[in-house]
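Practice problem 4.
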C-alpha cells in the first residue's frame, strides 16, 4: 500500500471517530455549533487526495502525517469507547465535548509539527471555503484578523444560539423520521445554515467582507462524493 493510500485509510478512520463524537454530542445536547459538514475537519480534508495535491504534500510529509494520524486514531478510539460505559447523560455529554475539543487541539498541534507553515495555511484556507461562514467567524484568529467589534461578536453568538435551538428541534424529529422525511430534515438543516451565514455576513462591513473572502485564498473545489455537492 502506498503512503498516500495508507494515509487516506487512517485519516478516514480517525475522521469517522470525530464525526461520531460530533453526532453523539448533538444527540446528547439536542444542539450543536453550526458546522460546515464533517468534511471541514482538518483530518478529513487531509484524507482527500485532491487536497493533498493542492497543498503539495511530499512523500516524506505524507509518511509523517500517517504516523501522527495512526497515534491519534488509537488514542481517540480507546477514549471514545470508554464513554459508552458512562451511564449519567450529563457526565457523558461533558466528556464527549471535552474529547472532541482534545481531538481538534491534538490534531492542530501535531499537524503543525510535520507540515510546513505555508502548507498548513493553505489547508486552513481550504477549510474556510468548506466551513459555514458563521463557524469561520467564530474562530478567534479570523475574528482577530477582521477586527470584529464586541457588538458584532455578540450578535454572531445570538445567531449561533438561534440556529442551535432550531437544530435541536430538527434533531428531536430525526429519531422517528424515515426515508423522505429524513431527506427533508437534512434539507431544512442546510437551509438553516445558509440563513445563518447570510445573517452573519450581513453584520460585516464591506471592508471586512472583502478581507474575509481574501482570507480564503484561491478558490478550490472539493470533489463530489456519492452524488452530494460539497458544503460551502
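Answer key:
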Amino acid at each position: 500500500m502506498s503512503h498516500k493510500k495508507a494515509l487516506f485509510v487512517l485519516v478516514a478512520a480517525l475522521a469517522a471517530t470525530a464525526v461520531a463524537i460530533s453526532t453523539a454530542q448533538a444527540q446528547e445536547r439536542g444542539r450543536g455549533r453550526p458546522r460546515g459538514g464533517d468534511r471541514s475537519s482538518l483530518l478529513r480534508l487531509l484524507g482527500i487526495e485532491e487536497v493533498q495535491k493542492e497543498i503539495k504534500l511530499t512523500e516524506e510529509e505524507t509518511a509523517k502525517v500517517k504516523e501522527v494520524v495512526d497515534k491519534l486514531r488509537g488514542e481517540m478510539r480507546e477514549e471514545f469507547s470508554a464513554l459508552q460505559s458512562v451511564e449519567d447523560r450529563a457526565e457523558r455529554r461533558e466528556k464527549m465535548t471535552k474529547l472532541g475539543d482534545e481531538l481538534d487541539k491534538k490534531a492542530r498541534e501535531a499537524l503543525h509539527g510535520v507540515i510546513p507553515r505555508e502548507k498548513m495555511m493553505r489547508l486552513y484556507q481550504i477549510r474556510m471555503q468548506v466551513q459555514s461562514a458563521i463557524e469561520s467567524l467564530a474562530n478567534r484568529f479570523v475574528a482577530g484578523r477582521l477586527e470584529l467589534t464586541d457588538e458584532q461578536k455578540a450578535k454572531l453568538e445570538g445567531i449561533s444560539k438561534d440556529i442551535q435551538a432550531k437544530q435541536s428541534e430538527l434533531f428531536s424529529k430525526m429519531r422517528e423520521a424515515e426515508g423522505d422525511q429524513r431527506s427533508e430534515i437534512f434539507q431544512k438543516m442546510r437551509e438553516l445554515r445558509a440563513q445563518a451565514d447570510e445573517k452573519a455576513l450581513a453584520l460585516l462591513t464591506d471592508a471586512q467582507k472583502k478581507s474575509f473572502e481574501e482570507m480564503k485564498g484561491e478558490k478550490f473545489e472539493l470533489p463530489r462524493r456519492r452524488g452530494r455537492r460539497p458544503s460551502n
